[in-house]
TrEMBL record, chain A:
Residues 1-233 form the ABC transporter domain. One of its GO terms (molecular function) is ATP hydrolysis activity. This is Molybdenum ABC transporter ATP-binding protein. InterPro entries: AAA+_ATPase (IPR003593), ABC_transporter-like_ATP-bd (IPR003439), ABC_transporter-like_CS (IPR017871), Mo/tungstate-bd_C_term_dom (IPR008995), ModC_ABC_ATP-bd (IPR011868), Molybdenum_import_ModC (IPR050334), Mop_domain (IPR004606), P-loop_NTPase (IPR027417). The gene is modC. GO terms for cellular component: membrane. Gene3D superfamilies: 2.40.50.100, P-loop containing nucleotide triphosphate hydrolases (3.40.50.300). It holds the Pfam family TOBE. Residues 286-351 form the Mop domain. Keywords: ATP-binding, Cell inner membrane, Cell membrane, Membrane, Molybdenum, Nucleotide-binding, Translocase, Transport. It comes from the Bacteria. It comes from Geomesophilobacter sediminis.
TrEMBL record, chain B:
SUPFAM superfamilies: MetI-like. The lineage of its organism: Bacteria, Pseudomonadati, Thermodesulfobacteriota, Desulfuromonadia, Geobacterales. Its main location: membrane. The keyword Transport applies. This is Molybdenum transport system permease. Residues 12-214 form the ABC transmembrane type-1 domain. One of its GO terms (molecular function) is molybdate ion transmembrane transporter activity.
Length: 351, 227
């Protein structure tokens, strides 16, 4: 997917002015509420029109004020997954799923409904009314409906924001697997950096109606570490090795992690804030924290008034953060040995 | 209270026939105007809304008179109707037209309320899924506005059953031809011996109205449960 958007759109008290090009299959748009993300999506889908500018997708003009082109949304082949699913309440799950498929020209019908129903595990829901579905099920159906329209681009406008945390990660698995299996490029819009990191390879940061930057989700997370209240979130997937008292022991690379929060999964995903990692220059004698990891410093980076420390531990990467003074005292530099201490209760279960 | 005569039964049948015909005739136009005023932006929209709602504020007699001078023998539309071989004035069809005009704002307002209560994102969703305007109207807007359509239709039917002012001007009060229940009641109340029959027809009117409103409530609840 190659997208170029150079558009202006004015509302009373707000102006969106963007000029960017992006290529790739998994692109994120990140920004806080009111930054202009949804306006951007609406312009791209054709649900509203720019005051001026151009939108070009894969070489085709979808909008051009100078060429007087404005392709209506029904002919853009850009499907959307909305924040609140937006399923048709008078249709069954099956009716919803096939709505876009029936309107897709036979030449574009590349995705088999049965395969999609299988991938998204929708078979038991097919005959149900959509009002009988949970929030997560509704979003799965909304995703299936959008994919079955066989779009050339899928827009996901904060599709997880209406779900609770436990369902978000489940749906992310579905979003990723469907994206991979059917090869539909997507634009994932979110105000959650975690979602952006899990879903995308490249991200546009939006703020005040402007594109603030174009980078990778990892780089964006590092840039925001110093300003964020939760620091940098390390995503850790461990393999359950054994249970020990009230704790679980997980293998993570060559290291073992002691985690006190329970998970039903054999290979759960945990998040760990960079602020919950304490660094020691030498091996501490005795500590109450259950995780003492011998690490090598890979790199350091500045973020706000904090210093991020990228650590290598057992073949895995971990980001810790310290204030500048501490970095000086610890003499943190690349290839230096260091000890990271993490309490078993600092891990938060995502799945 | 007295037994009804065959002319009274004819008036009852005619009332139902006129109300039904007026409702069915108005329904497609009502849906069209409700759609236009709910979803389309165009110049003169305000004027159109005022015109649609005008019969609500005008005395029905005025509407009847305007119809008479438009469709009458020397009316400005008379040449067109003569050419088509249609005679309206002082027929039951004129009663249908009068009822349709008087009840039309009620029909449009109810359907419009139904359409405007739709989540606009459903329409956006259907557009991004490849549906065009007429397709969206048939597959999303109309099915989700059924409650408003039923409410509007029953209101219009009930209003047509009771229509008097416009009907008497444009269709007259000819027993067995254009005389509906309200016109028959008017006749009986003008006669010193007709009080009992007038009361009987009033009871018929009440029963019909209760039936219509009962159907309206039942259908409304059914769709509320489904939604």
């Amino acid at each position: 997917m190659e997208l170029r958007m150079a558009v202006d759109k004015r509302f009373p008290g707000f102006e969106l002015a963007t000029d960017f090009s992006v290529a790739g299959g998994r692109v994120g748009i990140f920004g806080v509420s009111g930054s202009g993300k949804s306006t951007l999506v609406s312009l791209l889908a054709g649900l509203s029109h720019p005051d001026q500018g151009e939108i070009v997708l894969d070489g085709e003009y979808l909008f051009s004020s100078s060429k007087r082109i404005s392709v209506p949304p029904e002919r853009r082949r850009i499907a959307m997954v909305f924040q609140n699913a937006c399923l048709f309440p008078h249709l069954s799950v099956k009716g919803n799923l096939l709505y876009g498929f029936k309107r897709c020209t036979p030449g574009h019908r590349k995705i088999d409904p049965d395969t999609l129903i299988d991938v998204l595990k929708l078979e038991p829901l097919l005959q149900r009314g959509v009002n009988m579905l949970s929030g997560g099920e509704k979003q799965r159906v909304a995703l299936g409906r959008a994919i079955l329209a066989n779009p050339r681009l899928l827009l996901m406008d904060e599709p997880l924001s209406a779900l609770d945390d436990s369902h978000k990660l489940q749906i992310i698995e579905y979003l990723r697997s469907a994206g991979d299996q059917f090869g539909i490029p997507y634009l994932f819009i979110s105000h959650s950096l975690l979602e952006i990191r899990l879903m995308t390879d490249e991200v546009l940061a939006v703020g005040g109606g402007r594109i603030l930057g174009q980078t990778t989700p990892e780089e964006l997370a590092r840039q925001r570490m110093g300003r964020s209240q939760v620091g940098y979130i390390n995503l850790i997937r461990g393999d359950l090795v054994r249970r020990l008292g009230g704790m679980q022991v997980y293998r993570w690379g060559d290291a073992e992690l002691f985690v006190s929060t329970a998970s039903q999964e054999e290979t759960p995903l945990f998040e760990l804030s960079s602020r919950d990692i304490i660094l020691f220059k030498k091996h501490p004698e005795a500590i109450s924290a259950r995780n003492l990891l011998h690490c090598k410093v890979v790199d350091t980076f500045a973020s706000g008034n904090k210093v991020g420390v990228e650590l290598s531990v057992g073949g895995q990467r971990l980001i810790a953060e310290v204030v500048g003074e501490a970095a000086d005292e610890l003499a943190i530099q690349a290839r230096a040995d260091i000890y990271a201490v993490i309490k078993a209760s600092s891990f938060r279960t995502l799945t | 209270m007295e037994y009804l005569t065959s002319t009274d039964f004819t008036a009852i049948r005619l009332s139902v026939k006129v109300a039904l015909a007026a409702t069915l005739l108005s329904l497609p136009f009502g849906i069209g105007f409700a759609y236009l005023t709910s979803f389309c932006r165009f110049r003169g929209k305000l004027l159109l809304e005022v015109l649609i709602n005008l019969p609500l504020t005008l005395p029905p007699v005025v509407i009847g008179y305007l119809l008479l001078i438009s469709l009458g023998t020397h009316g400005w539309l008379a040449p067109l109707f003569n050419l088509l071989g249609i005679k309206l004035i002082f027929t039951w069809k004129a009663a249908v037209l009068a009822s349709a005009l008087v009840g039309f704002p009620l029909l449009v307002r109810s359907i419009r309320i139904g359409m405007e209560s739709l989540d606009p994102q459903l329409i956006s969703a259907s557009r991004t899924l490849g549906a065009r305007r007429l397709d969206i109207l048939c597959t999303v807007i109309l099915p989700l506005s059924v409650r408003g359509i039923c409410a509007g239709s029953s209101l219009m039917f009930a209003r047509s059953l009771g229509e008097f002012g416009a009907t008497i001007i444009v269709a007259g009060n000819i027993p067995g031809v254009t005389q509906t229940i309200p016109l028959a009641i008017y006749d009986y109340t003008s006669s010193p011996t007709g009080q009992g029959t007038a009361l009987s027809l009033c009871i018929v009117s009440v029963v019909l109205s209760v039936l219509v409103l009962g159907i309206h409530e039942t259908v409304g609840r059914k769709f509320t449960r489904r939604a």
